[in-house]
Amino acid sequence: MSWRHLLHIVGAVVGAIGVSMLFPALVSILYAEWSTAGQIAGAAAVTTAIGAALWKVFDRPGELSTREGFAAVGLSWIAIGLLGALPYLFTGSITSITDAVFETASGFTTTGASVVPDPGLLPHGILFWRSFTQWVGGMGIIVLSIAILPLLGMGAVQLARAESPGPTPDRLTPRFKETAKRLWVVYLIMTVAQTVFLWLGDMNLFEAVNHTFTTLSTGGFGTDAGSMNAFTAYSQWVVIAFMVLAGMSFSLHYRAVRSPGVYWKTTEVRVYIGVILVAATAMVIGTWGGPVHDVIRDALFTASSIVTTSGFATANFGLWSPALQIMIVGLMFIGGMAGSTAGSVKIYRHEILFEASRVDVRRLIHPRGVFVTRIGKTPVEDSLVEAVQTFFLLYMFAFMTGTFALAVISAVWGPELDIVATTSAVASSLGNVGPGLDSVGPAGNYAGVPLLGKWLLASLMIVGRLEILPIVILFNRETWRR
Description:
Layout: H1 3-20, H2 22-30, H3 34-57, H4 66-83, H5 86-91, H6 97-108, H7 124-139, H8 141-148, H9 156-163, H10 176-199, H11 205-216, H12 233-246, H13 250-256, H14 262-265, H15 267-286, H16 292-307, H17 322-331, H18 347-365, E1 374-375, E2 378-379, H19 382-413, H20 419-430, H21 451-465, H22 469-474
Helix pairs in contact: 1-3, 1-4, 2-3, 2-7, 4-6, 4-9, 6-7, 6-21, 7-11, 8-9, 8-10, 10-11, 10-12, 10-13, 11-12, 12-16, 15-16, 18-19, 19-20, 19-21, 20-21
C-alpha cells in the first residue's frame, strides 16, 4: 500500500470538487448575491489548490489493487466531507464546523439529514450547493471521476467496486470507464426530464433544478422548511415517479431503452415495487380519514421516500401510530435496487438472504439433498452469498453499536435523546434516509443532536454510503502492511 498513490487519487477527487464549487458561485452571481459569490469562489480556490497540490506532489498510481481501491475511496469521501464544508463556513450560512461537516456529509452521501431549520433563508448559491452535493454524490463521485478523468483510468474497476452502490458493479461495456459514461448520460437525461416536469407545475426553475438534483440522487434536501408539502399535488406526484425510478438500477434504465420489457422480467424490480405498494397500503389503512386522494398520495409518497431512502416528506409520520412508526424504521433497512442511487441494504441483498435461508432450511430437512441458492432462475455463487451475509452482519453491528454510542453521548453530554429519536437517527443515517422520528423527524431536524453525536452520525452516513467495507479496510491494520 502506497500513501503517495492514494493521496494522488484523493487530490484528483478533491480538485474536481473544488472546481464544482464554481457552479454555486455562478448561481449567486445570477441572483446578484455578490458577497456570497466571492466567498464561495474563495472556498473553491482553497479546495482546488489543496487538490492540485496533492495531485502534483504525489505519484500517479499504476494498476490499483483491490485494497488500494477501497482505501482510496474511503480517504476521498472523508476528504470531501471535510473540504465540502468550506462554502458553508466561508459564507457564514453555517457557522459551526461540526454542523457544516454534518450538512456536507449528509449532502454527498445523499442522506438528507439537516441541521438547517429553514433552508428558504439560505442564499441561492448555498441552496444550490446543498442540492448539487447530493446530485454529484448520488451517482458517485469516484464513478464520475472515472468517466471524466483519464488519470483514474488505471484500477477503475477497483475504485468502482469500492464506491458503487450494490454488491458488484454492473458493466454495460467491457471497459468500466465507458460504462460510467453511459450511466451518467442516463442520469443527465433523467435530470433534464424531471426538471421540465417540475417547472411545468408550481415550481420556478431554481426550485425545479434543486428538487430534481435531490430526487434523482435520493437525497431529500429541499428549498423550504415544509419539504415537498410546500408544493402542489402535481409536483408531489412527479417526485413520487422519479423517486421510484431513482431507486431502480440505472443500468436497467439504460437497457430498457432498447427493451422496455426488461423491467418486469427482473425479479428485483417486482420485489422492489411490491415492497413499496405493500408499505403504502398499510399506511393508507393506518391513516384512513380525510380526503381519500390525499391519504393515498401521502402514503405512496412516504413509502417511496423511505424505501428509496430519499427522505422527502409530505406528512409528519412522526405523529402516526406506533405500529406505522415501527414499520417506517423497518423500511429504513430495505433500500432500493442494486445499482441505484438509493442507500441502505438493497433489495438484491435481501433476496439473497431470504433464498439462502430457504436453502438452509431445506438442507436441514433433506440432509443428503443438493440445493443451490437462486434468484429467479439464476444461481447465486456461494462466495456472493457469504459476502452478503458478512455485509448484513457488519451493517447490523454498525447499527447496534451506533445506537449504543449515540445513547451514551446524549446521556453524558446532552441534550439527552429518547430511545425513539436515538434509534431512528442511527438507522436513518446508516441507511442514508434522512429524517428519523421524534425530534429528528420530518417536523424537526438534527440541530439538537449533541456535538459528538453529529460527528458519529456523519461518520455513519459515509459508512452506509460506501457500504461499510471501504471504511473497514481503511482502518484495518493489515491494509497498510507491505
